[in-house]
Write a structure and sequence with these properties.
Oligomer: single chain
Number of helices: 2
Order of helices and strands: HEHE
Strand content: 5-15%
Radius of gyration: 20 Å
Number of strands: 2
């Protein structure tokens, strides 16, 4: 019995992977540049405030430090 291993992934370098991650994050972040509300602090109170604002249709950005 012969076992054949097929590589289904393209060979990419660390630079390519990092670039893909950063580009994906930048695209997602750019959607929140214009927000109705920015909440500094993503603890329980900040998350609840964001949830309530979102339920009222407000676009908010929560920043955790």
């Amino acid at each position: 019995m012969t076992l054949t291993i097929v590589n289904k992934f393209a060979k990419v370098g660390e630079k390519d992977v990092t670039r893909a991650i950063v580009e994906g994050f930048a695209k997602q972040f750019s959607e929140y540049v214009e927000s109705d509300c920015i909440i500094v602090g993503a603890g329980p109170a900040g998350l609840m405030a964001g949830k309530e604002l979102a339920e009222k249709g407000k676009k908010n950005l929560e920043i955790k430090f």
